[in-house]
Amino acid sequence: EHQKYIRNFSIVAHIDHGKSTLADRILEMTDTVAKRDMKNQLLDNMDLERERGITIKLNAVELTYHAKDGHDYEFHLIDTPGHVDFSYEVSRSLAACEGAVLVVDAAQGVEAQTLANVYLAIDDDLEIVPVINKIDLPSAEPEKVRKEIENVIGIDASDAVLASAKKGIGIEDLLEQIVHKIPAPSGDVNGPLKALVFDSVYDDYRGVVLSVRLFEGTVQPGDKIKMMNSGSEYEVTEVGVNSPNPVKRDYLMSGDVGYITASIKDITTTRVGDTVTNANDPAEKELPGYREMHPMVYAGLYPTDNAKFDDLREALEKLKLNDAALEFEPEVSQALGFGFRCGFLGLLHMDVVQERLEREFSLDLITTAPSVTYEAKLTDDTVKEVENPSEMPDTSSIKQISEPYVKATIMVPNDYVGAVMELCQHRRGIFDTMEYLDDYRVNVVYHMPLSEIIFDFFDKLKSGTHGYASLDYEVEDYRASDLVKIDILLNGEKVDALSFISHRQFAATRARDIVGRLKNIIPRQNFEIPVQAAIGAKIIARTNIKAYRKDVTAKLYGGDRTRRMKLLEKQKAGKKRMKAVGKVDIPQEAFMAVLQTD
Ligand code: GDP
Ligand code: MG
Asked: What is the ipTM of this complex?
């Protein structure tokens, strides 16, 4: 029957090992995409993905493979991101599949995210098909990498596919292995509909488009469906698959991966991880769904134009459909007005959210410096969660502040172990273990404050090891630290959005650094601006931004009103991403100044 010829699989790997390029070759080999429409990393279809050369979103496509046994197989391939900030996309993709193609770079070997991602797949009981990619590289060592896959990951790699996604080598071998190794889906086609929502996106015309994997039953236009979690019901308007462009189908059935639209305009009723069933013949139990993701970092997002607050709310709600890990709630800043405190999985995630809001929803935003969530134990023994440094209670009412610690796993050639340890130590890391993976590669484990890792740690790690180190981390627990809140005052006024938390030991140096940096970032105005950093009432660093000597416009354009207007217009445009706080204009960079360390 139908399901026997279906194979559902995700492609997983460490970033840059060639997942998206391998997907290209598969699309080509199976004539899914016409030669003239082919382009590199075709599935990275978001502008942002193409510009940055990374995959941000999972992407599911259907293709047909004519196998050597003479049968046509229907493949559903899901390309996934490799970066740690987007591992939620990977775990959701895996839940829709029976197998995972694990790509390992023949020159780089197993790296931190290789392990993290393959373990997600193993936890889900997926069949793993290992591929050793980039064998065309002069530095490729496929046999060594084969052993590494066996020793480090612990899976059989004796018949791992040797491939070059770039040169198109090994692709047929891979497709055959997918047919023979990955099991066909096995759900009951005649049972009540059970479809897992693994992604969604808002479309202005069609409403919410649900990406689904059917585990039981069938669905077709006209069916009345019910979202098991929210209880809301809709009539299906269209079903189909992406190939890679959307193609309508008469129906989807158990084993299929595709999309459903049902004129869903109320975006609050659908949630990734929910189960879609048939309202007239409902399933008894919903599918397991996904574990909730907890944001690692929080930052304030404010429209540069205060009137755009409602637009920002609507944009966040729509974006959340396509970015299930995003969290937000309204907040008010004395300095910045009305905005949202948003939770992200990391700084890249935060960056991507801001960019998508600006591009896809035409907003101009100011982002405040990201912060982890602290726990303040108060003198009355209650514990307050602090997601925004400016909300840290007064020192007099705090017994103890705790911060999140992560277990950081760093894989690195042994030549660089010293550099890695020095960096970790410098960032308040506590050494755990060091283990040789083979003759020259080492796995170093540290316990570190999350706040020390999320900012520029990864960049420092890469530059300190000539790009050879790879990093993975997960939050372990909260530990008490000697932390203080530092406030920044401009022109004598506290700017709440610039407050930050620092370890007491580094407070004075960081305060001096930041005050100095703000001096360079904040444009001069026609009066002198004192810049101060304070712990409570105590000023610990200060400087001044000198005033302009003369009013430039008055001198140059004194008489000519239109030219003067033009100049003001220009200045206004240049002021985008600037926020007037009191009498001082603060540019976006100022809010990020507290992030830089060195
Ligand atoms: P992803 O992050 O895993 O999706 O990796 P990409 O598919 O975006 O590829 C990362 C980089 O590796 C790109 O510059 C590709 O051109 C390159 N690449 C991918 N596969 C191969 C290969 O087989 N050989 C060589 N030499 N380069 C490859
Ligand atoms: Mg990719």
From this structure: 0.99
